[in-house]
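Forwarding the complex inputs:
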Amino acid sequence: MKIGIIGGGAIGLLLAAYLSDEYEVTVYTRRSLQAQRLMREGLRLVKRGETKCISLQAMPFTKADISDDLVFVTVKQYDVAEIINRQNQFDRAETVVFLQNGMGHVKRLSSLTKKNVIVGTVEHGALKHDDHTVEHTGIGKIVLARLYGAFGQAANLAKKNIPDFPFEIANDWESVLVKKLIVNAVINPLTALLRVKNGELLKVKPYYEMMALLFSELKQVLPMEDEQAAWDHIVNVCEKTADNYSSMFMDISQQRKTEIDAILGYVLEKGKELGVPLPLSQFLFAAIKGMEERGAEHG
Amino acid sequence: MKIGIIGGGAIGLLLAAYLSDEYEVTVYTRRSLQAQRLMREGLRLVKRGETKCISLQAMPFTKADISDDLVFVTVKQYDVAEIINRQNQFDRAETVVFLQNGMGHVKRLSSLTKKNVIVGTVEHGALKHDDHTVEHTGIGKIVLARLYGAFGQAANLAKKNIPDFPFEIANDWESVLVKKLIVNAVINPLTALLRVKNGELLKVKPYYEMMALLFSELKQVLPMEDEQAAWDHIVNVCEKTADNYSSMFMDISQQRKTEIDAILGYVLEKGKELGVPLPLSQFLFAAIKGMEERGAEHG
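Prediction (whole assembly, two chains):
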């Protein structure tokens, strides 16, 4: 089976590293320089202090005529629209997997109904060191759920049992995405604003209170079957990634655009729809927007 | 007239610098080293890039038997209780002026009813460079209002018209303190959390929205005669002190205790009294408490 991975960020490179043992993998990057480097020097996976070198195919997405059977889209949510606009480039793929944070991109996927469309969440910790080096900082899993059609070639991945890189199949795509959204809506903005590692939200008592305050607000608009389980999941992610900086923290500190629209922006839309005031989400949303704006100025 | 100033912080030193021309001033410090330095090397006032050297008296407060007619208490709010416990040391003062932020200290002043007790707010910008150097970073005024008794010797100050250092007399102590409290409750925690100068709250649009959100919450519990005037005042202070870091920002960055209890702590008490939920104030209060806690750890 041939696998295409659109996006050469931390998640795209991590997927490429783990899938290359079993499959023929091509990474489709935004910049040609990154593709060149991956082709020439290979992909380096750093794990537990050791580095493994992996050779694979790579090319810039805009020039690609993708013939892979299974395609992963790993770009940030705000770039999904651009990928969908160029869907003729992966017309031959039978199954497409979208691994974005948030929920806002789901409505954009309706033009792909002829394919198997899978959405999923990534619970791994990954840090991109440079264009051809990714570190696996926390071993988790990838959860996949059907949005349109069948699992198709994605079903094979769950059966493969790749060490340190399990795939899990779930039934209800909405509950999969919401579960991740809740985690992202709490941990990401708070760590970015307070400029701390994920674990500090548990260690510093007033920060833990901030998490709880925010969670109480979110549960008014995000569907949770089991509130206690949702809260425990947040705490569990903080524990497991205690020493990591969240992606939003990293985006802010490297003056990149964050995924705040996909995360709290979506929450605020829900609040508007339901007529529920969400002062903390509004406040945090503005804080991150302001930090982005200032970062861009200084950058 | 002899004037005593309890507290050798930025405000205490600024007062000492401006009152020494006309009056015999003694500064009562917490540490003997600061008093020694002030006695030996004098007090230096930096203003518009120029430095003026002023000689005055200084001694540690704990050893002082104060004979001044007029005493200013310029310690932080959380140290007022300790000063009141030692009120026998300034028993001979007829008039005592308290220049703290917040409102919480007012109830502690009831044991001083035999004196003229004045409370006031400082609208100057002041930055303490070292134990005997203070910079006047923003020219404002000091507003005084009677809590118990008469204005006494404090009335003279308002008549004196000291250049760049005016005193204003107001009628209603509560509205004087609330006006300052509103400014402090908005500007201080936001600048400390976002780590920006006061002016950024106006320049960065999402930060301005955060100010507005917080203000809408505060006006539910703080008495404001004219809401628009109160908001305009906040904006005006941000403009006038655009290039300054707030005292709370400075406290956090220098890993000192902040005045968050006196400011948002008081607001939260009011909310409890009135049964009004204040999610943003709670959230910000926890943020600053957490930053204090972490600072202390790392210090």
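The two ends of chain B are 43 Å apart (CA to CA).
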